[in-house]
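stuck on this chain:
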Amino acid sequence: MALNLDELLSINTEENKSNPKETEKVSEKDKETVSKVKETVSGKKKTPAKKPKGKPRGGNSPVIGNNGLMLEEGDNAKFMGVQIALLNMPDIDMDNVSEVQQRLSDYFELYTSRDMKPTVAGMAVALNGHSRQWLRNVVTDNVTGGSGYKAALRPEVATLIKKAYFMLENLWETYMSSGKVNPVAGIFLGKNNYGYQDKTEYVLTPNQQTDNDYDADEIRERYIAADQQKRLSDNSTMDEGQSD
């Protein structure tokens, strides 16, 4: 027997006219009943909407995946352009304060014009193609030119280089505190370029006593007591030998 949904609704409507207060409640029930009947007749059920798929695990991490590793268009050309400019810088007189100051200014202007963060290695290369270790030795007043064929820098030149180096350190701190650099990369640079450490050191001081800490009478009593104890032990051993 076929089920007429329209007839069912009309019958329920006529019954509800006798009781107006229940009309609203009954009509809501009718709608639910009709909806269930339609689903039964059609054989289809509503499937719940799928939740939008979120980012994969680690999607917000600065380390996992390709975050921070993908280059934008033109990045390679910009980075290589800076390297070429550093390579083509002519050597300067490292004893001439004016030339060293101008070279450091040119170095900072080069990175500023390309909207790039200056680097310690880049500054070393700009100063006649030196290494990062050489620059660090200048700043920490260590020996430079281990082979002995390079003269020591003048104090005025060394002071100028130190000032520029400390500007790089200040820039690094600014980037870190402002969230402008990857934390992992920032910590790595801080440890390797500026000597920062995140370890705890313990200093053990031995308990050393001076001559005033000793009492002569106490030492004499200890020796006398030890000597008496030794004599008693020797006598006891001799008595045992004679009894045998």
Remarks:
- The longest helix spans residues 216-243.
- DSSP finds nine helices and no strands in the chain.
- The two ends are 129 Å apart (CA to CA).
- The mean pLDDT is 76.
